[in-house]
Amino acid sequence: MTETRSDPAAIRRETLLVAWAALAIALVALAYCVRHGTLLLFGDAVAHLHIARRVLDSLNPGFRQLGSVWLPLPHILLLPFVWDMAWWRSGLAGACLSIPSYVLGCAGIYRLARMWLGMPAAVVVVAFYGLNPGLLYMATTAMTEPLFLAEVIWAVVLIVQYERALADEGLPPTELTIDPLESAGNPTASRLLISAGLVLVCAIFTRYDGWVYAAAAWLFATRPLIICLRHWDRRRWGPVGGAWVLFTALLLGAPSLWLAYNAKQFGDPLDFIRGPYSARAIEAKTTPPGSPPHPGFHNMRVSAHYFLKAAELGAAPLRQGNLLFWLSIAGTLAALWVFRRRQIWPVLLLWLPLPFYAYAVAYGSVPIFIPIWWPFSWYNTRYGMELLPAFALFAGCLIPVLISRPPKLRRYAILASLLLVVANSVVLLRSRPLVFEEAFVNSRTRLPFEYALTKALREMPTQGMILMHVSSDVGAVQQAGIPLRRVVNEGDYLTWQRALEDPARGAAMVVALDGDRVSQAVQRHPEGLRLINVICSTSNPCARIYRSELAGSR
Question: N or C: which end of the chain has fewer CB within 10 A?
Answer without folding.
Answer: C
